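Weekly puzzle thread! Below is a chain. First person to post its structure in C-alpha cell form gets bragging rights.
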Amino acid sequence: MENPIKNHNIGVSGIITAAGKNRRMREDLRNKGMEIQHKLLLKINSDPIITCTVKKALKTSLNDCVVVLGHFMDELYPALDKIEDSRLRTIKNHDVDVELSQTLLNGVSNAKYDYCLCLAGDQPTVTTATMQNLINQLLNSPEPGNTVSILARGETGYLDSAQGLGMPFACHSSLLEHYLQGEEDNLNPLLRKMVADGVSLYGVPAENELELVNINRYDDYLKVLEKIKLM
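Winning reply:
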C-alpha cells in the first residue's frame, strides 16, 4: 500500500461526530409517550450529552476540536454555542444522509493537525483520562503514523483483530483520510481493512465499564444515569 501519510501541523485535532438520525432514541421516546427530543440533548448532571462529551474532550491536550453535524443540526447548535473555547468549531455535512464514514471524512478533511482523536457525540461516559491515554499511546508508539490507538472492549495492548471495535480512537489524520475516501459504511469494516494492511491496532483499557456504553436507546440513557449515581 502506498504510504498515505503527509506532513501537516504537529498537534492533535478532535473530531466529534454528531450527525446521526437519532432514529432509535426517537422511536423509544415515541413508544413511551414521551416528548421527542434529540438524544444528544438529554441531560447528564444538568448538561446535555453532547456538551458533556465536548467538555471532556476539551480538557485533554487537543489543539483543535471539530464537531460534525448533520441531521437535526439546528437543535444542537444552541448547546454547542454555550461552550466557550477557542479550539471548538462546528461544521456540517453537505448531505445529511451519509454513513458514519463520510461524517468522519468531513471531520478529518477539516482537521488542522497531524493527528486526530475521534469520538462519538453519544459517548459522554468516556473519561478525559481515557481520551488522553488514547492520544498518548498513539504519540508514544513506535510508528505513530501507522498506528490506531482505540478503546479496548476485551483484550488490550497490540491486537490482531478489530472485531467489535469502534470509537473512540486516535490515529494520524492522513491515515484515516486515506481509508475513508470513497467509503459509505460504519467504522468497523474500515478498521478491519487497516489491520489487514498492516496498520498497528493498540487497545487502551477502559477506566471503568461505563466507558463502554454508547447511548443509542432510552434504556442505555437510564443505565448511564443509574451507574453515575453509584460512582
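Puzzle host: Confirmed. Bonus trivia for everyone else. The mean pLDDT is 93.
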